[in-house]
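retry 2 of 3: previous attempt timed out while embedding guanosine-5'-diphosphate. Reduced batch size to 1 and resubmitted. Inputs unchanged:
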Amino acid sequence: MCLLLGATGVGKTLLLKRLYKISLKESLDELGEPPPTLPTVGTNLTDIAVNKRKITIRELGGCMGPIWPSYYGECEAVIFMIDAANPTQISSSCIQLLSVLAAEQLQQTSVLILFNKVDLPCHMSLVEMKSLFRMDDIIACAKQRLSVLEVSSRDGRGLEDVLKWLRSHCKGKQLPRSSSETQ
Ligand SMILES: Nc1nc2c(ncn2[C@@H]2O[C@H](COP(=O)(O)OP(=O)(O)O)[C@@H](O)[C@H]2O)c(=O)[nH]1
Ligand SMILES: [Mg+2]
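retry 2 succeeded.
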C-alpha cells in the first residue's frame, strides 16, 4: 500500500487516473485530454498493475490531514504531492511534509515528493521550489530515503519515473495470471 498525500487541488486524483491508464497501456502516447476530477470525499483507492504486481495507492485529501496518521501503519511508501504553480500553498504544504517525515511509523518508509503542474507557464522552477522548501535541509535531516520529481499529471511529463519509483519501492501483490493477462 502506497499513500498519496497532499493539499486539496494539487492533482492527486488526476495522477491516479493517469497512472492507471499508463499501467494498462504501458505507454504515454494518447493520454488525451485530462478526465474531469471531482474533489475527493474521504479516500480514493486505485490499483495499478506494474510488472505483474498489483500496487494499491490510497489518496488522502488535505482536509483529512488530522487523520492521515491512522493510515501510516499499513503503508510501505508515501507520495507527497505539491502544486508547483500555487505559491500560496507552499508554507502549509511544507508543514504537512515535515509532520509526515517526523511520524514515528514512517521512519523506514521511502518518500517521493512530486512537484506537479509543471505544464503551467506560471509554475516555479525546481531550483525555486527546492529553496522555498529548504529541501537540502529536509533531505539532510530526514531519516527516510527521499526522492524529488517534477511532473505534470495533465500532459504526462515525469509519470514514467513515478511508475519506476513505485516499482522499486512497493512490493505490491502478485497478480493472478488470468487477471494480469486481461489487464
Ligand atoms: N495544468 C494542470 N492541471 C492539473 C494537473 N494536475 C491536476 N490538475 C487539475 O487540478 C485540478 C484538481 O485536480 P485533482 O486531481 O482533483 O486534485 P486533488 O484534490 O489533489 O485530488 C483539476 O482541475 C485537474 O485537472 C497538472 O499537472 N497540470
Ligand atoms: Mg482528489
